From TrEMBL:
Its EC number is 2.5.1.-. PROSITE patterns: POLYPRENYL_SYNTHASE_1. GO terms for molecular function: transferase activity. Belongs to the FPP/GGPP synthase family. It comes from Streptomyces ehimensis. This is Polyprenyl synthetase family protein.
């Protein structure tokens, strides 16, 4: 990807992120009043505070960029409903992060404490209360993601169509969480299973739903283009998940925002760790298996697994696979000749920029 194209993609993503972050802050500023928070409740304002903190604390806002650029495939006019769709997408993401961290018993997220651990610190002698409040915070974010669409000032038919997209995406994501846990009971997940988990847990709500919502808001029927949208979303979802798994094992935790080896300690048979298990010798596999699911695994243990991965060529193979999927996604988008060239170019360039940033 040339420097000019990279700069253009970065500028577009940064612009969408900057505008959305300001809108997200405004949303949270008015949320307590809109909800009608009980006057005597102390826990409800704290829940909203934690939702705000996690939601505004970083994040690439790639979903927001995909949403707006999907609308730009059709038109450059202002499109009613996009702001509400963006809020819905990111509130659903907040829900997923909170519940992910509960499932994984993760202490950190986006460079700060996870919502679950924030509650654990506040209620050190009431573990079930901390757990319950974290679950409810995630639930509230999910329901708010639908409510914000219900409140959108758009035609009823469009509102119903967008709600259907988000409701389906939310249900698929929960199914993906279930599959994610099921995958870790398979000694050596194959590629098909790993792709299926990624499809349900990530692709459908993070890539496909923003594309559909953007096109709907712009007056296009996404069902007419379902096959090509799914191909693009699938390829992007796979390399994005591979990248996350790769960075968890090989990345700099100061950049990633959470400790290295989180998947290893949680016993997650991710793309990266499944590849290590498949490539390792019997003795090496025993080392990896003994570390999988040990929450007290040390940095030295993670280093040992990382060294096995590098010795067996797993790091290079993952990098090659990520690049291949990114290139295929780019080629798919480049074939969208029936849409506006500027936005098509964005979708074609974005996968290459995204994977190069990780490598």
């Amino acid at each position: 990807m040339n420097d000019t194209a990279t700069a253009t993609a970065l500028e577009r993503v940064a612009g969408h992120r900057h505008r959305f972050n300001a809108r997200f802050e405004t949303y949270f500023d008015s949320l307590a009043a809109d909800l009608g928070t009980p006057a005597r409740s102390r826990f409800t304002p704290r829940c909203l505070e934690l939702l705000r903190d996690l939601s505004l604390r970083g994040g690439k806002r790639l979903r927001v960029a995909l949403l707006h650029e999907a609308a730009r495939l059709v038109t450059t006019d202002d499109v009613p409903g996009l702001d509400e769709a963006a809020l819905s997408i990111e509130l659903l993401q907040t829900h997923g992060l909170i519940h992910d961290d509960i499932i994984d018993d993760a202490p950190a997220r986006r460079g700060g404490p996870s919502t679950y651990y924030a509650y654990r610190e506040e209620f050190p002698r009431h573990e079930q209360t901390a757990l319950g409040l974290a679950v409810l915070a995630g639930d509230l974010a999910a329901f708010l993601s639908l409510r914000v669409l219900l409140d959108a000032d758009i035609p009823a038919e469009l509102r119903q169509a967008m709600l259907r997209v988000q409701t389906d995406a939310a249900a698929d994501t929960v199914t993906g969480q279930i599959l994610d846990l099921e995958r870790d009971f398979v000694p050596l997940p194959d590629e098909e299973l790993l792709h299926t988990v990624t499809d349900y847990k990530t692709t459908r709500y993070s890539i496909l739903a923003p594309l559909r919502l953007g096109l709907l808001a712009a007056g296009e029927d996404p069902a007419r283009h379902d096959a090509r949208l799914r191909r693009y979303a699938t390829l992007v979802g796979i390399y994005e998940q591979m990248r996350d798994d790769y960075l968890d094992l090989f990345g700099d935790e100061n950049v990633v925002g959470k400790p290295s080896g989180s998947d290893l300690r949680a016993g997650r048979r991710s793309y990266a760790l499944s590849a290590v298990l498949a490539a390792a010798t019997d003795d090496e596999r025993a080392v990896v298996e003994s570390a999988l699911g040990d929450p007290h695994g040390t940095a030295a243990t993670v280093d040992g697994v990382r060294e096995i991965a590098r010795r067996r060529g797993v790091e290079d193979r993952l990098r090659s696979d990520m690049r291949r999927y990114a290139e295929e996604a780019s080629a798919e988008a480049a074939s969208w000749h029936h849409w506006r060239e500027e936005a098509v170019t964005f979708f074609a360039r974005l996968p290459l920029w995204s994977v190069e940033r990780a490598l």
